[in-house]
Design brief:
The chain is α/β, with parallel strands linked by helices and 204 residues long. Helix content is 46%, strand content 17%. The protein has a single domain (7-201), classed as Beta-carbonic Anhydrase, Chain A. It contains 8 helices and 5 strands. The mean pLDDT is 94.
Length: 204
């Protein structure tokens, strides 16, 4: 499926939807029965949103989207694994999505757990350890640059995650090089509902 809008146009649509949400003017588009039926045999989302699993970070709500608008991938702390990479590559190569969004947020529990593990030297048990190990490089990088709190670490983790997508996936890096896909890193502020741009890769 070919891309129907440019990365720049996709980013503008997300910005507009988030502004509506921030100001309490959400339109709840593409949620009617007719639109639902039109999607039975096809989909053409304009963005893939890779965000944290936090219950306060529902992508379709904060960007005022509807059915078929976004291909959403979520893990705690927006931690990359092979399934995430495969899902994002699918959205690009099969669905023709022009924009990848890396979405983090204030007061992230996974990043808080990582900070506590780094500070104490005690790693958590179970599979939470895997999350902490993957976020630790972002916490350490932020501290080297003067970062002091969880929200500083969150912003750095967004940037590191966006870079890792390009480094880890030839599908992603090639699409960016061809100017077919751009990546935006967004920090979501829980109090005001705004998604703030913190970095970008590719033209916007």
């Amino acid at each position: 499926m070919s891309t129907v809008i440019t990365p720049q146009e996709a980013w503008q649509k997300l910005q507009a939807g988030n502004e509506r949400f921030v100001h309490g003017e959400s339109q709840h588009p593409n949620q009617d029965a007719l639109h639902r039926e039109s999607l039975v045999n096809q989909q053409s989302p304009f963005a893939v949103i890779f965000g944290c699993s936090d219950s306060r970070l529902a992508a379709e709500i904060i960007f005022d989207l509807g059915l078929g608008d976004a291909f959403v991938v979520r893990t705690a702390g927006q931690v990359i694994d092979l399934s995430v990479l495969g899902s994002i590559e699918y959205s690009i190569s099969v669905l023709g999505v022009p924009l990848i969004v890396v979405l983090g947020h204030d007061n992230c529990g996974a990043i808080t757990a990582t900070k506590e593990a780094v500070d104490s030297g005690d790693m958590p048990g179970g599979f939470l350890r895997n999350l902490v190990e993957r976020i630790t490089p972002s916490v350490l990088a932020s501290r080297r640059d003067g970062g002091q709190d969880v929200n500083d670490f969150m912003v750095e983790h967004i940037k590191q995650t966006a870079l890792r997508l390009v480094e880890a996936s030839r599908t992603v890096s090639s699409a960016v090089e061809r100017h077919e896909v751009s990546i935006v890193g967004l920090a979501y502020h829980l109090d005001e509902g705004r998604a703030e741009l913190v970095n970008s890769i590719g033209a916007l």
